[in-house]
Design goal:
The chain has 16 helices and 13 strands. By secondary structure, the protein is α/β, with parallel strands linked by helices. The strands form 3 sheets. A 6-stranded mixed beta sheet has the order 8-9-10-11-13-12, with helices on one face. A hairpin with a 5-residue loop joins strand 8 and strand 9. Helix 9 packs across helix 14. 40% of the residues are buried.
Length: 407
């Protein structure tokens, strides 16, 4: 059964404006499935560059490629043949029609570089991630994610009571489409295949990695550090590589959509702030597999449960704002005294401050952390503590205790 993606609405709107649309994102998150569903009532050619013969032709004879495959078209995994981009430019410049070429890609850095050089102004770029909790539950929220009390009340009306057990099963399983209804054994086998079949192949072909054994160790070391500040020294020491290699491999994982780096908030009125990003995995199911959490029950009782919960919330926030009408800037603050605001959401001129707690009954006084921003001219529009409370609960006129399933 097809599960509708929140990004569909934005995609359709952009399709009426851009001649070319690129859906970027990690392998196997449903990019092709979404596009083929949206094209189900159209006569649109589909071709994938995962096919080595087709890829060879696209790279060596791009003009011949477009003589064989007619527009409108879906070209899957386009990062394998950047030679197509100049020809795409020529094709779309010959017509005023929008939405003629739909592309998918799984390698952000090189892909974006080639897109910017060849298709600037002609392409709309959208990001797709593993399923969000609301997508899995069939919920389409009516409005953007704001953290004032009235907006949160409207979301509360659309969901069931928040459940810690259900949230942690989602954290452990992740949001990859193929594992939604998988058994524990099927999930374990899927992720092992995902790493060996897709990820390791991509890091060799696209990232030039030669020592795949050390890279696998590096991947597991990253999974052990989710929710923590980056330390290239620690990573390099664990894996047995130099720090420059650690930086290059981390950038590769980020470009492949495997990890997400939450960068520190910047304000020139704040001094002595930590400048190190925090590390998260785009899919917590992959992270739990790499860290050998074999069941949701062992994960919820494990020493890393708070870090996994934080990882889950940060990525759910990322999805919400990527799929919405306007993107938000997500950052965090940690000062020299280790006082921290877990997430700062900058949405236009609005600033929301968020603390993330796994507890179902967090200390309301934790909102006092947000006073870190009072020494600046920043005006906080709302926020609170995202936690495992069952129902939304106001703390004061600005902050709330926010159930995790409202994100």
């Amino acid at each position: 059964m097809y599960i509708h993606r929140t990004l569909e609405k934005k995609f359709i709107e952009m399709n009426d404006f851009f001649k070319v649309l690129l859906v970027n994102g990690p392998r196997q998150v449903g990019k092709t499935t979404m596009l083929r569903k949206l094209a189900s009532n159209q006569k649109r050619t589909y071709v994938t560059l995962d096919n080595l013969e087709i890829r060879k032709m696209a790279k060596e004879e791009p003009a011949h490629f477009f003589q064989i495959y007619d527009l409108p078209i879906i070209i899957d995994e386009v990062q394998y043949a950047p030679e197509l981009f100049p020809y795409i430019k020529l094709l779309v410049d010959q017509s005023n029609k929008t939405g003629q070429i739909w592309l998918t890609g799984s390698q952000q850095y090189n892909l974006m570089k080639n897109i910017q050089e060849s298709l600037a102004g002609r392409v709309g770029i959208l990001n797709l991630y593993p399923f969000s909790n609301s997508e899995i539950n069939g919920i389409q929220f009516d409005s953007e994610l704001f953290f004032d009390l009235e907006s949160l009340k409207k979301r509360q009306e659309m969901v069931q009571s928040n459940s810690l057990k259900e949230i942690f099963h989602r954290i452990w399983a992740g949001g990859m489409p193929q594992v939604l209804n998988a058994t524990d054994l099927q999930k374990e086998t899927y992720f092992e295949g995902y790493i060996n079949t897709y990820l390791m192949r991509d890091v060799v072909e696209l990232g030039g990695v030669r020592d795949v054994i050390k890279f696998r160790t590096f991947l597991s070391a990253c999974a052990a550090l989710i929710g923590e500040q980056l330390s290239f020294k620690n990573l390099s020491d664990v894996v047995g590589i130099d720090q420059e290699t650690a930086k290059r491999w981390l950038n590769l994982l980020e470009s492949l959509g495997i990890i997400y780096l939450l960068h520190p908030y910047y304000n020139n009125q704040l001094k002595r702030l930590n400048k190190t990003p925090k590390l998260y995995f785009i899919d917590t199911g992959l992270a739990s597999h790499l860290s050998m959490w074999l069941t949701a029950e062992t994960l919820i009782m494990g020493a890393s449960n708070g870090h996994y919960f934080e990882n889950y919330i940060v990525i759910e926030l990322l999805k919400s704002y990527e799929y919405g009408q306007h993107k938000a800037n997500l950052t965090y603050i940690r000062d020299s005294n280790d006082k921290e605001i877990d997430v700062i959401v900058e949405y236009g001129r609005q600033i929301y401050t968020l603390e993330i707690k796994m507890s179902a009954s967090p200390n309301r006084r934790d909102v006092k952390k947000f006073k870190m921003l009072e020494k600046t001219e920043v005006k906080i529009a709302g926020g609170g503590i995202i936690c495992n409370i069952e129902r939304l609960l106001p703390v004061d006129g600005i902050y709330n205790l926010i159930p995790a399933n409202l994100i």
